[in-house]
């Protein structure tokens, strides 16, 4: 039975809400110490999957084991051993930072003394020690997020579930959160996260699945996925609107043969090739003059575009 | 298309007249309340419930009730009290909770001041809305009193303007006080001030129940002035002394409005 | 090094996080939460819990009571209006405290601040969360009722110590009979728009017409019948029997049974609705 040595193991997992099928049969196997990601746009079924894995949402079909246990039977036992950082902060705004952590720790049946020690330790870890006495309402978005992460660690979880951990944060706050999560990963905590930011997935995960419309459309490490579904480099070209007609569509036809693949986005053309600079040079040779050019490495965004024909953030 | 936007732009650029601005704010509140019509409707019921419970139910237990040497039916005594108290309660609810919400929480006033509206337009509009609502309630309550045979004078017609006056007096002062409040916790103080007035301002029993010194204190409170004014109107015992109550309430209202204006300018135009 | 890793997997840990063994054990884990909440909010409840009922006693019982003859035949056996109205106000206060605590605060837990969602992500179950919250509501009722009854004692309106102690326990029952159904409604309600109606068309009419201020016999026959099927009337009548020392055992048993059944049905309804809200 593979389920026993997996942290999270699912086969044919499904979730429906009335007529809507949010998750339509997925297979997942997360190993101890791994950082595993669910990548996909809003509505892909990531959050529904996370809620099932957190043992707070009954499955509609298939099989699911968390730490070898069945969430339908052992929900509380599972929740005692995992940490959950939900998409929306569920902090108690009427309590202080320290009180939030303390009362939450008590939910896990831990002795008061033990919880107090862990609260100090965690405040230090998420760099909120000076804010211990502040009310939650007075914290910035990034601080609230770090507090939620600290809260999810109060029971020293074997698996930490993070649903869109940095959505809504400014770039600086995101980097602070990433840094903390990276440290946890180094300490051997199994991380499972959902995101629709491809840079987040690349930074944090060892392995990920790309979800779309309730299904898994690809699986692998970020580098493998890029190697498999995209080219090494991408040239992004933007043409002015002065030229007549569907500019980008027209130009796309003219440069089709210069790249392995061409994608047309509303505001630009993407030319996929091994050497982007070389591709741009050839475009100029054809007498085409893009108003802006950018050559970059392929990312998971490109993988997603290739697999689904859509962008991640729309 | 562009002609329309140009016309709108020209209109918006010229400052609104006071009456126009007030009408606009009334319309905004009307739109906001349209979906919550049942709140508007049920707000009318509270004083009616009190009238039936205390005035009629407890009234059956009260024997030989005398006010100023005249025996009076207990319900006829309580009814004008409830009318005045409900005028106060309604305005206070608008001028404290609802005003605070718009001032501090959904920042409605900040949004309004980004337009040609002025702080005084806002205060006037909010108060007008509150008075409009209070006026409708008190007219309805007067009809209930008529149907129950609790009105004994034509003077009673003036009880609706009297209720508006009570609303004006409390509305200005309470809005002014609300501008000083910092959090919802401060609203415990509102209850602490209004409940004793509601219970002790000759609403349920005459001030003769108090020792003399306390009686003097009660007679100086605004709700007491409103209650006796309404009672004098519905029982037809109007005298020159009634004018004292009128002047008292007018002065209170005007003073409140002057403070609101200064406070709103300081809070919103910084 | 391993000892200082906050989330270190499998690090040796004598105090292991566990699932609670029973609903009671689960609810006890929430004790610190509710203690912390109460420590922070008790000041804001003084006026509504202690000052308001006393003002009503003084205004209605003492001052208006001065205009009412203490005729036991008119006042269900009470020898003064104060003795009649005091138990009514105690029971009505239990109701208003409970309705206040199980409407907006419950909506806050499931919708606005979503504190319950944090709890359910820990090894707690729906029943644990409900039990703890309702226990807190009952604690509030116990505190206000105890203070109310203690303050009324010097007025000489109680017939015996035993009666008052039983009347105190009755307040917990009245509280629970209102708490579970209102909690159930709030836990499953989409938004707070109906709360105003609960207050204006439910709580205030019950407060005014369920025998707290005047005997329901003074109502017209159909209204009297209506009043006697409301839960508050059962609570008021039971409380009054006990404080006046005129207990009709069979009627008292009916009151108790009515309130117990209401509380139990409310509990089941609440469990179902909260389950659906938190675990979907």
TrEMBL record, chain C:
The keyword Transmembrane applies. InterPro entries: ABC2_TM (IPR013525), ABC2_TM_bact-type (IPR047817), ABC_2_transport (IPR000412), Nod_factor_ABC_transporter (IPR051784). It comes from Nocardioides kribbensis. Coiled coil: none annotated. Belongs to the ABC-2 integral membrane protein family. The chain crosses the membrane at residues 46-68, 80-99, 134-158, 164-185, 197-217, 249-270. PANTHER family: NODULATION PROTEIN J. Keywords: Antibiotic resistance, Cell membrane, Membrane, Transmembrane, Transmembrane helix, Transport. Pfam families: ABC2_membrane. Residues 44-277 form the ABC transmembrane type-2 domain. It is a multi-pass membrane protein. It is found in: Cell membrane; Membrane. This is Transport permease protein.
């Amino acid at each position: 039975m593979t389920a026993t040595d997996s942290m999270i193991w699912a086969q044919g997992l499904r979730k429906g809400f009335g007529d809507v099928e949010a998750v339509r049969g997925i297979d997942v196997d997360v190993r101890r110490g791994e950082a595993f990601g669910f990548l996909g746009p809003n509505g892909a079924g990531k959050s529904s999957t996370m809620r099932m894995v957190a043992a707070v949402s009954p499955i509609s079909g298939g099989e699911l084991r968390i730490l070898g246990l069945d969430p339908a039977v052992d929900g509380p036992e599972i929740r005692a051993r995992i940490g959950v950082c939900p998409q929306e902060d569920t902090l108690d705004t009427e309590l202080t930072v320290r009180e939030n952590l303390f009362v939450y720790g008590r939910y896990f049946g831990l002795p008061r003394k033990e919880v107090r020690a862990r609260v100090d330790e965690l405040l230090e870890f998420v760099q909120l020690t000076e804010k211990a006495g502040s009310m939650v309402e007075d914290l910035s978005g990034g601080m609230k997020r770090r507090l939620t992460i600290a809260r999810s660690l109060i029971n020293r979880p074997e698996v930490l579930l993070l649903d869109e951990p940095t959505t809504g944060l400014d770039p600086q706050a995101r980097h602070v959160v990433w840094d903390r999560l990276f440290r946890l990963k180094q300490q051997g905590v199994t991380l499972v996260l959902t995101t629709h930011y491809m840079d987040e997935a690349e930074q944090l995960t060892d392995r990920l699945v790309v979800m779309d419309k309730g299904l898994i459309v690809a699986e692998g490490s970020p580098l493998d996925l890029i190697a498999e579904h995209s080219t090494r480099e991408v040239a992004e070209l933007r043409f002015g609107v002065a030229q007549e007609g569907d500019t980008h569509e027209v130009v796309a036809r003219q440069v089709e043969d210069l790249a392995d693949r061409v994608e047309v986005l509303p505001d630009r053309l993407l030319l996929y090739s091994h050497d982007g600079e070389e591709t741009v040079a050839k475009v100029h040779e054809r007498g085409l003059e893009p108003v802006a050019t950018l050559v970059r490495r392929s990312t998971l965004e490109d993988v997603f575009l290739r697999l689904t024909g859509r962008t991640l953030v729309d | 298309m562009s002609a329309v936007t140009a016309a709108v732009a020209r209109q918006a650029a010229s400052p609104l007249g006071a009456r126009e601005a007030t009408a606009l704010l009334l319309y905004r509140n009307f739109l906001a309340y349209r979906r919550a019509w049942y709140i508007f409707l049920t707000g009318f019921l509270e004083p009616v419930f009190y009238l039936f419970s205390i005035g009629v139910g407890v009234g059956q237990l009260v024997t030989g009730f005398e006010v100023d040497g005249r025996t009076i039916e207990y319900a006829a005594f309580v009814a004008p009290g409830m009318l005045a108290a409900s005028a106060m309660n309604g305005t206070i609810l608008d001028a404290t909770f609802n005003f605070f919400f718009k001032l501090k929480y959904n920042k409605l006033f900040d949004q309004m001041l980004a337009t040609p509206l002025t702080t005084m337009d806002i205060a006037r509009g909010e108060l007008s809305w509150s008075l409009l609502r209070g006026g409708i309630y008190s007219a309805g309550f007067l009809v209930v009193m008529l149907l129950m045979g609790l009105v004994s004078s034509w003077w009673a017609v003036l009880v609706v303007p009297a209720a508006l006056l009570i609303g004006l007096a409390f509305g200005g002062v309470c809005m002014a006080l609300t501008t000083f409040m910092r959090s919802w916790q401060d609203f415990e103080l509102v209850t602490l001030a209004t409940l004793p007035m509601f219970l002790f301002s000759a609403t349920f029993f005459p001030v003769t129940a108090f020792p003399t010194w306390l009686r003097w204190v009660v007679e100086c409170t605004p709700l007491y002035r409103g209650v006796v004014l309404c009672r004098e109107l519905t029982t037809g015992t109007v005298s020159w002394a009634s004018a004292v109550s009128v002047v008292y309430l007018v002065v209170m209202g005007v003073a409140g409005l002057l403070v609101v204006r200064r406070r709103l300018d300081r809070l919103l135009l910084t | 090094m391993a000892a200082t890793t906050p989330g270190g997997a499998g690090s040796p840990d004598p105090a292991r996080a566990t699932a609670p063994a029973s609903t009671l054990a689960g609810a006890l884990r929430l004790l610190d939460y509710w203690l912390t909440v109460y420590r922070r909010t008790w000041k804001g409840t003084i006026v509504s819990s202690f000052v308001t009922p006393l003002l009503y006693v003084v205004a209605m019982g003492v001052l208006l009571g001065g205009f009412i003859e203490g005729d036991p035949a008119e006042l269900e056996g009470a020898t003064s209006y104060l003795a009649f109205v005091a138990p009514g106000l105690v029971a009505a206060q239990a109701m208003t405290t409970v309705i206040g605590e199980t409407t907006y605060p419950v909506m806050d837990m499931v919708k606005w601040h979503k504190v319950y969602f944090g709890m359910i992500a820990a090894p707690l179950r729906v029943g644990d969360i409900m039990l703890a919250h309702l226990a807190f509501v009952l604690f509030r009722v116990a505190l206000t009722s105890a203070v109310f009854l203690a303050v009324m004692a010097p007025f000489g309106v109680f017939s015996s110590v035993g009666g008052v102690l039983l009347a105190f326990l009755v307040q917990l029952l009245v509280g629970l009979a209102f708490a579970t159904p209102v909690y159930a409604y709030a836990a499953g309600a989409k938004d707070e728009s109906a709360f105003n109606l609960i207050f204006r068309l439910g709580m205030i009419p019950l407060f005014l017409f369920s025998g707290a201020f005047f005997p329901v016999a003074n109502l017209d026959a159909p209204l009297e019948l209506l009043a006697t099927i409301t839960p508050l009337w059962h609570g008021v009548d039971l409380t009054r029997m006990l404080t006046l020392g005129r207990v009709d055992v069979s009627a008292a048993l009916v009151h108790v049974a009515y309130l117990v059944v209401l509380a139990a049905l409310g509990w089941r309804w609440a469990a179902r609705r909260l389950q659906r809200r938190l675990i979907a």
